């Protein structure tokens, strides 16, 4: 019965960039994340632990836009956001604007578990991380050569069609054997963003949502649109109040409302019966899932 899905970001991946080696590396990264989550679910562990474990694998993988390998803001600094939610008691934790926390999703979990708050930002969040005994890392820990090239290209207007990593983000949703749902999302945001900019990923109801009576959702895409469309909660509401199926609800938001607004990206959703939906309206979305029958699939375009 347990099921899990992960994403590694949505966007327009130019065919020339998608070499067989790059494609294989993306799929391997997604599979590693799925397996980390699956191990916990198979042992009867909670979906919350599974989504955190899956996201941490992707945060540590420099190919994905979260943790190490995060995209870089216009001022040359990586600023990271993350959030998670568990569907049984609707508890949630979120962090924004982190510069020195190795695992933003790990800190979001601590905000949920040991602080009386839901969201901490910037310096206050960093101080909380230190209090919790998390070892700070230098900002350059997150910076990779590839992201530096992408920042330079994004800042250079003459680069024209540069698109690939304007978007990214990683996320996971899961249903465990006890019937509990959970969602987690972690990101570096968007390449060349203004420092201090906050996207949808740490916003509960926009980039992340979970409630046991309907579904768990993690989003990836152009955050300014996802916040205004309250994407994750909208999907939940369509299931909860309009009686839509998981797939219908996800499609209505991603291919309807969001697309009409001009918002590019996608979502991963798992329903209370383990139904999975992974729709996107961008050219590609790095994604993978293990369904309730134990079948693993990954996809890129
Ligand atoms: N949603 C993220 C943000 O706007 C970026 C992405 O998912 O590509 O910060």
**CATH class wording:** Alpha Beta
Unreliable segments (pLDDT under 50, ≥5 consecutive)? 160-165
The biggest sheet amounts to: 8 strands, mixed
Strand content: 15-25%
Biggest sheet: strand arrangement: 4-3-2-6-5-1-11-12
Assign the CATH architecture. 4-Layer Sandwich
Terminal-residue CA separation: 28 Å
Structural class: alpha+beta
- Ions and ligands: aspartic acid
**Helical run tally:** 8
CATH superfamily: (Glycosyl)asparaginase
- CATH-defined fold name: Glutamine Phosphoribosylpyrophosphate, subunit 1, domain 1
Question: What order do the helices and strands follow?
Answer: EHHEEHEHHEEEEHHHEEEE
- Cα-based radius of gyration, to the nearest Å: 17 Å
Helical content class: 25-40%
Shape: globular
Mean of pLDDT = 94
Keywords for this structure?
about 300 residues, alpha+beta, Glutamine Phosphoribosylpyrophosphate, subunit 1, domain 1, eight-stranded mixed sheet, four-stranded antiparallel sheet, 8 helices, about 25% strand, globular, binds aspartic acid
